[in-house]
Design a protein that fits this description.
Blueprint: E1 3-6, E2 16-22, E3 29-30, E4 35-40, E5 45-49, E6 54-59, E7 66-68, E8 72-77, H1 85-89, H2 94-110, H3 133-141, H4 160-172, H5 187-202, E9 205-213, H6 215-232, H7 238-252, E10 258-261, E11 264-267, E12 273-275, E13 277-279, E14 282-284, E15 287-288, H8 296-311, E16 325-329, E17 348-352, E18 356-362, E19 365-379, H9 385-401
Parallel strand pairs: 12-16, 16-17
Antiparallel strand pairs: 1-8, 2-4, 2-7, 3-6, 4-5, 6-8, 9-19, 10-11, 12-15, 13-14, 17-19, 18-19
Helix pairs in contact: 3-4, 7-8, 7-9
Length: 407
């Protein structure tokens, strides 16, 4: 029996999906549970499986089309079954049936009808261009289209002076804008644009910056790096160290582990840290769940696993959803201080700058220390500046004293 395949709802915030690649073609056999089509949501790329076995009878959504959740994208039918697609679309709820059927009917109506008689193409007659041989030669040397020239000679004939005038005008005109490539504001890039605009418009952003002496952390990492790598199987990064320290500090400042929903501020019990990863398609934020309950090695393993999946565009929706606080590190790019935008609807985001050696005044002398700046952006509607500053102070203390770190 013929069945419609609809655009699935793969996450709570998903409203539409983009058809990337059909893994089967019309007329091909498909087994239940077999990947049928690759869909890009606002966060991830995933395969949609066939809900029944049969033949892929009709494709209703072409590759590159953005289709709302619940709208039909294909028809699967039994071999030899006669299917009236329009009738099948009528079984959808009214709100989706009309929107789905219209594009399908329009595509069917626009399909070319083969002609029974061979046709002979007849080129339209072009008007004769009257131009002197010298003017024609000059125009050819300067790649000047004859159709663009206005003749002032006898009977409208184009003469050398007409070509020279056109060349002079072209040389003084502004050069045409050169577009290297066009990037559709869709998929992950479109989601980033939407979320950043939403954050900028809705969040009362404030950013506080604090200097942190990372000398002891850098020394500890240097001493323990080989042993940690043998123990955990991954290379511990400074971002892993930061994630570990932030997760412990948030335990004491849960008011930053919050979100605003309507007229209510909801302080969240579970600490799920999002760690931003740069990919060729744009920034994506995988989530380390219950980060405060994980060891440093566990955080490093999870972070490396999620970053690898992010680069391969194989993250699941669960792995990019539900974050309660975000860390974004631009230190690798030489950035020291910046003002990250809050990952709405979260309360706060921590920007991490580079670690650089600087002369620092210590009691009785000037010393060279490894210094880093932390930039905490937060929603001032949810939390005030003083508790946000206290969070930074405690985080600074934890990093500078190596509190709770595996020594």
């Amino acid at each position: 029996m013929a069945m419609l395949i609809n655009m699935p709802k793969l996450g709570q915030t998903m409203e539409a999906g983009t058809v990337l690649t059909w893994l089967k073609r019309p007329g091909e056999r498909v087994a239940r549970g077999e990947p049928l089509v690759q869909i890009e949501t606002d966060k991830v790329v995933c395969d949609v499986e066939a809900s029944q076995s049969g033949l892929l009878h009709t494709v209703l959504a072409q590759e590159g089309e953005n289709i709302p959740v619940g709208h039909a994208i294909a028809v699967i039918a039994a071999e030899g079954e006669t299917v009236n697609v329009a009738t099948l679309l009528g079984t959808l709820p009214t709100s989706t049936a009309g929107a789905t059927a219209r594009p399908f009917q329009e595509r069917a109506a626009a399909a070319p009808t083969p002609s029974l008689q061979p046709s002979v193409a007849v080129a339209p007659a072009s008007p004769e261009i009257r131009i002197s041989p010298a003017a024609r030669k000059l125009a050819r040397e300067h790649s000047m289209p004859l159709e663009s020239l206005q003749g002032t000679g006898p009977g409208g004939r184009i003469v050398v002076e007409d070509v020279e005038r056109a060349i002079a005008v072209r040389s003084t005109a502004a050069p045409p804008e050169r577009v290297r490539r066009t990037i559709p504001l869709a998929g992950i890039r479109g989601t980033i644009a939407q979320r950043m605009a939403q954050s900028w418009a809705q969040v009362a952003h404030v950013t506080e910056v604090m200097e942190v002496d990372m000398t002891e952390v850098v020394a500890l990492r240097r001493r323990r790096l080989a042993a940690w790598e043998r123990e955990f199987g991954v290379r511990i990064s400074l971002t892993d160290v930061l994630t570990f320290a932030v997760s412990r500090t948030l335990r004491e400042f849960l008011d930053l582990n919050a979100r605003l929903e309507g007229e209510q501020i909801k302080v969240l019990e579970d600490i799920h840290l999002g760690v931003a990863v740069a990919t060729p398609e744009g920034l994506i934020v995988p989530v380390i769940r219950h980060a405060d309950q994980r060891s440093l090695g566990d955080i490093a393993q999870q972070s490396a696993h999620l970053a690898e999946k992010a680069q391969a565009r194989k993250l699941s929706l669960d792995e990019v959803s539900g974050g309660t606080f975000t860390i974004t590190n631009l230190g690798a790019y030489g950035i020291e201080i910046f003002t990250p935008l809050v990952n709405y609807p979260q309360c706060a985001i921590l920007g991490v700058g580079r670690v650089a050696e600087r002369p620092v005044v210590v009691p009785g002398r000037i010393d060279v220390r490894s210094i880093m700046y932390l930039s905490l952006s937060f929603d001032h509607r949810i939390i005030d500046g003083a508790p946000a500053a206290m969070f930074l102070q405690k985080l600074k203390e934890r990093l500078e004293t190596l509190s709770e770190f595996p020594l």
